[in-house]
Amino acid sequence: MIVGIPKEVKDNEYRVAATPEGVRELTHAGHEVVVEAGAGLGSALADEAFESAGAKILPDADSVFETAQMILKVKEPQPQEYGRFREGHVLFTYLHLANDRRLTEFLMERRVASVGYETVQLADGRLPLLAPMSEIAGRMAPQEGAKYLERPFGGRGVLMGGASGVAPARVVVLGAGMAGLNAAWIAAGMEAEVTVLDKNVDRLRYVDQIQRGRIQTVMSSALAVEQLVPEADLVIGAVLVPGARAPKLVTGDMVRSMRPGSVIVDISIDQGGCVETARMTTHSNPTFVEHDVVHYCVGNMPGAVPRTSTYALTNATLPYALSIASSGLEEAVRRHPALAQGVNVYGGRVTNEGVAEAHGLPCTPLSELVEGVA
Q: What is the reported pTM?
């Protein structure tokens, strides 16, 4: 199969879909890899490194899309990329379609077989391709929150770790998944006072066992959120329903009740956000103020640390990319039920229930479209 890796075009997105090491694995398996010139520069990966690994460097994105059968990307296609897709392409990337009806309808109309990293799901519920970016976004959230709590950035002027005789910042983390746990651990490492909420008591028990009381755990409920949010200096939203829109746990009234200069970091914004007042921002314009509260809602947080993110992402996605390239998408999803869960659009139809529900579209199970899929 010919695998194409274009340069990412989303605002301040510096990641690339594969490292030279990943390219070498693909070419070693007999596949052709074409990479757009300059695609890896944002991650400090020169064209020469990809060429040495066996890739062919093409001058522009049009050439990559025209040549390739599978398009390997990091972020969802942007409007300026739509015209480059054709029927027969396999797209393997982060899609987050539940938050983008226009893209969903485009992929259906163009009949692009679309596999979302974020919905590839193992039998035990883990999301192996979302995990590395969730981990990085979670670790970034407290550092971004700490910055925007500083007065020059519009915050209350609170230091995360406080000082001798002065209370530390109060941090509330909504969700104890991969992003939430990493956010809580980094915030605790900064010596903030941290509380984590989740509906899964086993996740909370895990936090207690590891942290031994250093992080407070609370069973999530509407009342608990309502009581904790107004007292927080920093609220980190890390709620995920695979493939579907994030539930709005923090209402506009709760945000209004927070102290002026408090900060919200909504990691869930890719899926619509778990804060009612949240709207997606970019690295070039990362924050806005609503009800005197600073909101940081960047949709591609790990893009700010592309070297780390690109390597972490390739480590996770490469085995699945190899499977698709080696046997074709249809055979790959028969062999790997987790990958079948990742298919969002196939044959012009939505195959992911969460995406279909978000947009009021019919959902066609993949098993009805591809014979032999469980």
A: 0.87
